[in-house]
C-alpha cells in the first residue's frame, strides 16, 4: 500500500449514508478545506500515522510481534484439517453418514456464523489481549475433548469438542488480523496479511500430509488428534509470550501513547447499515468462494481415494498439494496486488481456477496432482484479493466489525455447503455411493458454484468502476489521487456523525437493510440444517 493508504486506513470515514446510491465523487462537491472526515480539524494527512503507537515501535519489536501473531493461529489451522484427512476412517469408526460427517465438519463454521461478528465488535471496543487468550484456551480444550472422543468412539463427544474448538478458532483469525492492522501500516500491512495467510497454509499442509502417517504409525487414528492438541498448546504458549511482550512495551510508552492505545471505539449496530455495496459483494464472495474452498478441503482426500483408486496415504499427500501454492505465492501476491491492483479481476480469476480444478479432478483421468495445483492457485489468489480489499473501503475504526461480518458470511456458507455436499453424496444412486463416481453430483454443484462466484466478481468490478472510481482496480500511483478524492468526498457524509443524529433513519432506504436480512436468513438456514443432520 502507498503512503496515502496509511491515511486511508487511519481515517474515520465510511460510505455515503445512502450506501447503495451512486457514490461517485464526480457527482459531489469536492472538499478543499483539507479537513479529514470524521476526525475534526486535522490538517495534515501525515499526522494520523502516529495515531497508533504500536506502528511506531522499533522493527525488532515488530518482528517479534509478527512471529508471535503468525504462530498463535497455527494450532487452529493445523487442527482444522486433521478431520478431513481421516474422513473414511472416522465414518467407519463412528458409524456415521456423509451428511453427518458434513454436519460434524460444519460444527466449527456453524458456531462461527455469529461469533466472528461479536468478536469483531469486541475487538473494536476492548482490544485483543483478553480475546486472544480466551480463544487459544478454547481451541486447546476443544481439541483435547476431540482426542478423548476417539477413545470413546463417540460422535456426540467429538461434536462437543468441535464446538469448543470453534468458539476459539472463529475469533483467533479476526484477532490476528486486527493485531497486524495495529502493528503495521502501508505496504508492510499487505505483506503481513499475506504472511498470515501463507503461515496458515503451511499448518494446513502439514496437517493434511501428516495425519494419516501419524495414525498409521501409532496404529490408532486418535493419535493424529492428540498431535493436533499438542500444536494447539504450543500456540497458546506463544500467545502468552505476546501478551508479555505487550506489557513490556506498555511500560516503555508515554502517558499520551498509552491513552491512544487504550482509546475505545464506540460501536453502533446502525453502522452496519451504512457499509458500502462493494463490501457486501466482497462478503458475498466470501460466502461463495470461501465455502467452496473449505468444503473441498474437507472431502478432497476421500475424493482422490475413490476417484483414482489410491490408498489413504497417497490420497492424503495428493490432497495436501492443494495447500502448497499459497505458501509460496501469497507473500508475492500481497505486493503484486498492492502495486498493480485489479483486485476484482483477480477474484474472478480465483473463481475460474477453482472451476477448472473441479473439471480436472472430477471429470478427467489426469493425475489428481494437476487439479490440486490449479485449486491451490485459486486458494492463493482469492483470499488475498478479498481480504486486502476490505481495508481499502472500510475505516480502521470499523475494521474489526467488518472483518467479523466477512467471516460470519464465510462461516454461514461453510455450514450450508459442508452439509449440502455430504447430502449430495448420500442421495446419489446406490451404484454411485461407494464407487469412483460417488462425488459426481458434488462436482456438478461445485462447477455451478464456481461460475456463480465469477458472476459476483464481475458485479464487483462494475461497482468498483462506477461507485469507487476504480479504487480496487487502480494501480499504486493512480490509487493515491483516487483516495484523495474519495476522502474529500466523504467529509460531510461521515456515518459516524450521521448515525448519532436524531433523524438518522431518513438516510436509509430498503436496500440498506437487504444484505443484513439476507445474511440473517442464511444464518437461520445454516442452523436448521445443522440441527437436522446432527440429531
From TrEMBL:
Reactions accelerated catalytically: L-alanyl-L-lysine(out) = L-alanyl-L-lysine(in); L-lysyl-glycine(out) = L-lysyl-glycine(in); L-lysyl-L-alanine(out) = L-lysyl-L-alanine(in); L-histidyl-L-alpha-amino acid(out) = L-histidyl-L-alpha-amino acid(in)
Q: Which organism is it from?
A: Mycoemilia scoparia
What is the protein name stated in its UniProt record?
A: Lysosomal dipeptide transporter MFSD1
Q: How does it assemble?
A: Homodimer. Interacts with lysosomal protein GLMP (via lumenal domain); the interaction starts while both proteins are still in the endoplasmic reticulum and is required for stabilization of MFSD1 in lysosomes but has no direct effect on its targeting to lysosomes or transporter activity.
Protein task: Lysosomal dipeptide uniporter that selectively exports lysine, arginine or histidine-containing dipeptides with a net positive charge from the lysosome lumen into the cytosol. Could play a role in a specific type of protein O-glycosylation indirectly regulating macrophages migration and tissue invasion. Also essential for liver homeostasis.
**Subcellular localization:** Membrane
* UniProt keyword Membrane present: yes
UniProtKB keywords = Membrane, Transmembrane, Transmembrane helix
Cellular component (GO) terms are: membrane
Provide the topology term for how it sits in the membrane.
Multi-pass membrane protein
MF annotations from Gene Ontology: transmembrane transporter activity
Positions of the region Disordered?
1-51
Amino acid at each position: 500500500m502507498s503512503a496515502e493508504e496509511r491515511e486511508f486506513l487511519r481515517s474515520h470515514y465510511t460510505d455515503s449514508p445512502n450506501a447503495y446510491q451512486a457514490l461517485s465523487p464526480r457527482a459531489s462537491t469536492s472538499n478543499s478545506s483539507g479537513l479529514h472526515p470524521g476526525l475534526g480539524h486535522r490538517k495534515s494527512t501525515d499526522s494520523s500515522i502516529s495515531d497508533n503507537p504500536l506502528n511506531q515501535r522499533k522493527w525488532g519489536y515488530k518482528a517479534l510481534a509478527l512471529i508471535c501473531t503468525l504462530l498463535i493461529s497455527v494450532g487452529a489451522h493445523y487442527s482444522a484439517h486433521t478431520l478431513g484427512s481421516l474422513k473414511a476412517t472416522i465414518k467407519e469408526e463412528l458409524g456415521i453418514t456423509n451428511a453427518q460427517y458434513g454436519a460434524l465438519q460444519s460444527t466449527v463454521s456453524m458456531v462461527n456464523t455469529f461469533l466472528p461478528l461479536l468478536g469483531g465488535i469486541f475487538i473494536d471496543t476492548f482490544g485483543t489481549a483478553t480475546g486472544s487468550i480466551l480463544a487459544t484456551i478454547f481451541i486447546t480444550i476443544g481439541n483435547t475433548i476431540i482426542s478423548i472422543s476417539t477413545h470413546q468412539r463417540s460422535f456426540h463427544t467429538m461434536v462437543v469438542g468441535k464446538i469448543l474448538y470453534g468458539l476459539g478458532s472463529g475469533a483467533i483469525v479476526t484477532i490476528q488480523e486486527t493485531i497486524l492492522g495495529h502493528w503495521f501500516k502501508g505496504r508492510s500491512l499487505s505483506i503481513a496479511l499475506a504472511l498470515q495467510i501463507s503461515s496458515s497454509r503451511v499448518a494446513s499442509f502439514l496437517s493434511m500430509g501428516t495425519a494419516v502417517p501419524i495414525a498409521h504409525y501409532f496404529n490408532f487414528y486418535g493419535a493424529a488428534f492428540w498431535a493436533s492438541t499438542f500444536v494447539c498448546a504450543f500456540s497458546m504458549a506463544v500467545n502468552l509470550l505476546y501478551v508479555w511482550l505487550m506489557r513490556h512495551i506498555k511500560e516503555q510508552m508515554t502517558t499520551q501513547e498509552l491513552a491512544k492505545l487504550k482509546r475505545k471505539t464506540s460501536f453502533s449496530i446502525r453502522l452496519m447499515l451504512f457499509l458500502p455495496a462493494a463490501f457486501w459483494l466482497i462478503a458475498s464472495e466470501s460466502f461463495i468462494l470461501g465455502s467452496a474452498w473449505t468444503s473441498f478441503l474437507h472431502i478432497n482426500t476421500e475424493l482422490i481415494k475413490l476417484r483414482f483408486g489410491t490408498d489413504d496415504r497417497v490420497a492424503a499427500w495428493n490432497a495436501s498439494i492443494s495447500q502448497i501454492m499459497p505458501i509460496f505465492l501469497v507473500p508475492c501476491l500481497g505486493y503484486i496486488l498492492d502495486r498493480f491492483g485489479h483486485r476484482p479481476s483477480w477474484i474472478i480469476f480465483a473463481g475460474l481456477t477453482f472451476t477448472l480444478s473441479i473439471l480436472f479432478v472430477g471429470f478427467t483421468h489426469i493425475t489428481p496432482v494437476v487439479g490440486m495445483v490449479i485449486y491451490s492457485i485459486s486458494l492463493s489468489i482469492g483470499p488475498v484479493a478479498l481480504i486486502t480489499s476490505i481495508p481499502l473501503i472500510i475505516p480502521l475504526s470499523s475494521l474489526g466489525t467488518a472483518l467479523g461480518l466477512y467471516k460470519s458470511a464465510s462461516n454461514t456458507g461453510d455450514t450450508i455447503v459442508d452439509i449440502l455436499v455430504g447430502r449430495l453424496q448420500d442421495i446419489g444412486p446406490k451404484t454411485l455411493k461407494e464407487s469412483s463416481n460417488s462425488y459426481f453430483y458434488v462436482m456438478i454443484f461445485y462447477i455451478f458454484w464456481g461460475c456463480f462466484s465469477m458472476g459476483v466478481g464481475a458485479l464487483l468490478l462494475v461497482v468498483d468502476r462506477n461507485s469507487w472510481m476504480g479504487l480496487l482496480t487502480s494501480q499504486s500511483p493512480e490509487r493515491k489521487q483516487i483516495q484523495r478524492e474519495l476522502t474529500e468526498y466523504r467529509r460531510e457524509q461521515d456515518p459516524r456523525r450521521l448515525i448519532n443524529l436524531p433523524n438518522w433513519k431518513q438516510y436509509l432506504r430498503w436496500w440498506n437493510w437487504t444484505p443484513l436480512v439476507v445474511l440473517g436468513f442464511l444464518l437461520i438456514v445454516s442452523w436448521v440444517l445443522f440441527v437436522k443432520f446432527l440429531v
